[in-house]
Amino acid sequence: MAVRALAWLAERSATPVYIACGQDGDAMAARLAQVPAISLQHSIRHAAILLVAGPYRDADRPALRRLHDQLPHPRATVWWGAVPLAEAQDAVTIAQGDHPVARLRRLDRNLLRGERASEPDWLPDEPPNEWRGKGDHGQGGEGMMGGVPYGRPMAMMGEEMRDALMLDAMTITIGPFLRTLPPGLSLELTLQGDVIQQARVVTPAYPASGGASEPLLRAARMLESLGLPDLARRAQISAMRDSAEGLLAAARRCGALLALPAELADVRARLEAALRGGTAPDPGEEWLVDRLAGMEWQSALLRIASFDPATLAQIAPAAEPDEDEEDGDEKERAA
Amino acid sequence: MTAIPLVFALLAAGIWFAAIAERFASARRFPSAIVLAPLWQAARLLSQQRVRTEYPDALNWALAPLVYGALAVAGLSVVPFAPGLVVAPLDTGIVLWGACEALTIVAVFLHGWSANSMLPLIGGYRFVAIGLPAMLLSMFVLIAAALPAQSLAVGAIVESQRSMWNMVRQPLGLPLFLLLGLAISLRGPMDYGDASDLSGGTAAEVSGPHRLAWGIARLAMLTAFAAMGASVFLGGYLGPWLPGPAWLALKTAALLLVLTWLGCNLARMPAPRMMAALWLVLLPLSFLDLVIAGVEALL
After folding, report:
1. Which ranges does the record mark as transmembrane (chain B) (predicted)?
2. At what angle do helices B283-298 and B173-184 cross, to 10 degrees?
3. Which residue, A44, A62, A291, B211, has most beta carbons within 10 Å?
């Protein structure tokens, strides 16, 4: 009785969805921006439904599986213009041209009422790699630090690049489905605190999507990283209507341009151009990974999000794998 | 002891009001009955699984929202609802509030650290870096507000505003204090702990009832802060016609609206720029506020 009452109340709230954008997924996500019944989440842990929007690459399959298994129960996956993975039982598919809101709402309601079973894990509940530490308790690093036990890099002291202090360094992989990154882009970052010491492109971003509305979709991603979700949603809606009217003035009022320091003047110029619906050209002479070294987290995400797809394809191609990197070395989870 | 039910009533009403104001400010008017939307959201989170990361510090992870919420209650305990109507009538009420502010850093850091995950951890220590100068800012403006009362008791500070509110007497005080409110409730331009660029920061890995508890604790701290701000700068329970608790509730609601609006409509600077702004601009401004209050007290 109590469970049924809880479900009755819960199904009246907006459906929390995590959208994993494939090719053209960005523009598809924008179609959901003006639907109050759907709430797009920044963390997979906050969602009930994983919405895979647009075709994805074979290389993204492992990340998609890991992403799925982080969804809390009761959970479901919807394939919107995407081919379901073999693991997906009783897959819900929606054609790319169709609007998914009604199906998402119905699925959410069925999950809450227990009329549809929550999806099981797609990956076995075991470490993704074998134990590769040295000794009974050693993990392959020094003392209690460093090494890559089970393929996951542990923190290890290293010189901080700005002041040479010895601080913990940690390597993680982000993307290819992180909402604040261009869809498809996956980066391996070595961080000390929130400062990037080293970066490597794991998978490049998907080619341009969204057509003429691409600059506004890009602006929306930057506004999200600036802590302006409402303005970002407005930019997405404007992208769907092909009109950037009033966006730049609204961004100015919110201090979006003022918030960017002089070191990020390039980002500011690109944001301003994107809010006008255009693109500020970049010479594309320096690799993305070189432009990220020494940047703190939010600034780095803003800089990455500011590049138009053509420039990004030029400055952030997939890196050659390290020679000492073994096959199947899956480091930190994606997204 | 009638003040104890008043504390919890103000907290509950403030949490509800702030949750509605957030939805209204963000123009997400779904469902149409916006007043009940927080209840529906709470039911959803209660229906969801509470996930567990790999090897979390489970005890501290569970304790963090409780500590955060308890700090809000403790802070509110020194706020008077009417002359003599206060849970903890301390002569050093402002000091207790300052301790609650400072310990918020511990609660938020614990929340980020305990998840054993990278993004929450970054959220945790980024909050520590920004939280510390923001607390200093608050200490100076609160001391400045205490000067006309010549007392650190919140009741005395309220009584000192019978002729003029501190908001008018010390115009720099309230704007600077509001920045701290945004910081300790992890909101908008000062949200360095639970920010969207970190996929939710310290809350990136939480779901279900845990996320509900954290959300309630954040709103409780926001409410406690608004009540303290109303008492220290807007004359608290003072006002004609209505009883003291009603005036305090109205002024608290007004500050909640201001904080919600600021949270939704101001961009968040990258952390180094905010650090520079805090240490180089805002802290000197808080000194200036203190100097103005000191000169006025001498005259």
Report:
1. 59-82, 94-113, 125-147, 167-186, 219-238, 244-264, 276-295
2. 140
3. A44
Phi then psi dihedrals of residue A146, to 5 deg: 75, -170
In the block, residue with structure tokens 């008043």: B6
CA dihedral A255, A258, A263, A265 (to 10 degrees): 100
Q: For residue B270, which of A217, A185, A268, A252 has the smallest C-alpha distance? A: A268
Q: Is A21 helix (H, G, I), strand (E, B) or coil?
A: strand
Which of A263-272, A315-324, B268-277 is the least confident region? A315-324
Please measure the distance between the N-terminal and C-terminal CA atoms of chain A and give it in whole angstroms.
Answer: 37
Q: Is B194's Cβ below 8 Å from some Cβ in A?
A: no
**Amino acid sitting at position B186:** L
Q: Which residues of A touch B122 (CB under 8 A)?
A: 191, 193-194, 297
Structure tokens at A94: 């929606």
ipTM: 0.92
* Residue ranges of domains in chain B: 3-298
| Fold topology of A2-113 | Rossmann fold (3.40.50)
Q: Where are the domains of chain A?
A: 2-113, 147-335
Q: Which DSSP string do the residues of B10-78 spell out, in sequence order?
A: HHHHHHHHHHHHHHHHTT---SS-GGGHHHHHHHHHHHS-----SS--HHHHHHHHHHHHHHHHHHHTT
- Give the pLDDT score at A326: 43
Q: How far is B91 from chain A (nearest CA, A)?
A: 39
User: A197-211, B146-160, B196-210: which has the minimum mean pLDDT?
Assistant: A197-211
CA angle in degrees (0–180, nearest 5) for A112-A116-A118: 80
Chain B residues closer than 8 Å to A194 by CB = 122, 125-126, 271
